[in-house]
Amino acid sequence: MSKFLLQERQGSILIVRMNAPDTHNALSTPDQMQEFVDLSDQVAEDESIHCIVLTGEGLSFCAGGNIKDMQNQTGMFGGSAYDIRRGYRRGIQRIPLSLYDIDVPVVAAMNGAAIGAGLDLACMCDARIASNRAIFAESFVKLGIVPGDGGAWLLPRIIGLPKATIMALTGDRIDAEQALDWDLVTEITTPETLMERALDLATRIASNPGHSTRMTKRLLREGQHMRLDSLLEISAAYQALSHKTEDHVEAVQAFIEKRKPEFKDK
Predict the structure, then answer these.
(1) DSSP string over 65-116
(2) pLDDT per position as a tens digit, 221-238
(3) Fold of 5-206
(4) Among 128, 126, 154, CA closest to 217
(5) What percentage of the chain carries pLDDT values higher than 90?
(6) Cβ distance 158 to 127 under 8 Å?
(7) What is the mean pLDDT of residues 132-142?
(8) Worst-scoring range by mean pLDDT, 48-62, 69-83, 108-122, 201-215?
(9) pLDDT tens digits along 76-135
(10) Taking the model in full, what pTM does it have?
(11) Which one of 111, 196, 198, 229 is least enclosed by Cβ atoms within 10 Å?
C-alpha cells in the first residue's frame, strides 16, 4: 500500500503532501491516521526540522471523511455506535492530539477544498495560506453528524466563536476571500505560486533557532488555556533555557557584528 503522507526535505523544512487525489485526500483509514501520529513522533525527535509545510496532492487539500465509507457504513463508520465511538477515539482523534501538540511550527498550504475534517486538520496548523480556488466548510451538520475530530474546539480559537458557530451550524461553504476576511487564512495566492508563498513563510520561520521557535509555539499553545501568572512561570523557565544555548549567544553576537547568524541547533 502506498503511503498517504509523502515527505520531501528542503533544508530544515519538511514538506508533507497528502497523497490520495482520487478521493480528494479524504481521511478515513486507520493507516492514514497512524501516519499522522508517526509523523508527529518523527518530527518531535528530529531537532533539525524547524518547520513543516502540509499540503494536498490534486485538486483538494483534504475533503474530510470518506462519504462512500459513510454510505456503506464501513471502515471507521462501521459497526455499532460503541464501535464507532471507539473508532473515533482510537483513530482520527489521535491526529489533533499529536499534530496540534507538536512543537514544530506547521504551515498549511491549502491548494483546494478543505471540508469537514479537512478544515479541522488545517486548523491544527499554525498558519494557513490558501489558493484562490480553495473553499472551506465545517460541514458535518450537512451530513447529520457533528465535528468529531476537535473542530468545535479548534475553529473558534482561530476565527472566533460567533463566526465558528455560523460555519458549524449551517455547514455552509465559504470561499478564499471570506476565509481571509475571517482570519481563517492569512494570505490568498494563485495555485501556481501557493507553494512558493508557503515555503517563503516556512523559510522565515525556519531561519530562526529551532529551540526558540519550538518553545515559542509551546507558549502560544499553553497561553490559550492558562492563567497569565502560570504562563509567566513557564516563560521564565523557557527563557532561562534559551539564554544558555549556543544559538542565543550566536544570535546576539551576529546582531552586534551586523552579520547573518550561523545556528547549529545547540
Answers:
(1) S-HHHHHHT-GGG-S-HHHHHHHHHHTTTHHHHHHTT-SS-EEEEE-SEEET
(2) 999 889 999 999 999 999
(3) 2-enoyl-CoA Hydratase; Chain A, domain 1 (3.90.226)
(4) 126
(5) 76
(6) no
(7) 96
(8) 69-83
(9) 778 888 888 888 898 889 999 998 889 999 999 999 999 999 999 999 999 999 999 999
(10) 0.91
(11) 229
Amino acid at 43: V
Domain residue limits, the chain: 5-206, 210-257
pLDDT at 74 over 80: no
For residues 223, 224, 226, 227, the Cα torsion angle rounded to the nearest 10 degrees is 80
**Residue 78, C-alpha cell as written in the block:** 462501521
Report whether 212 contacts 247 (CB < 8 A). Answer: yes
Return the half-sphere exposure (C-beta side, CA atoms, 13 A cut-off) of residue 76. Answer: 23
User: How far is it, in rounded angstroms, from Cα 113 to Cα 119?
Assistant: 8
Handedness of CA 232, 42, 37, 60 (dihedral sign): positive
User: What cell numbers appear for 201 in the block?
Assistant: 513563510
**Cell numbers standing for residue 128:** 494557513
What φ, ψ does residue 129 adopt, rounded to 5°?
A: -115, 135
Residue 54 β-bridge partners: 16, 108
Torsion of the alpha carbons at 236, 159, 113 and 10, rounded to the nearest 10: -20
Please state, in angstroms and rounded to a whole number, the distance separating the CA atoms of residues 41 and 138.
28
- Residue 105 is placed in which grid cell? 511550527
Q: Looking at residue 58, what is its pLDDT?
A: 94
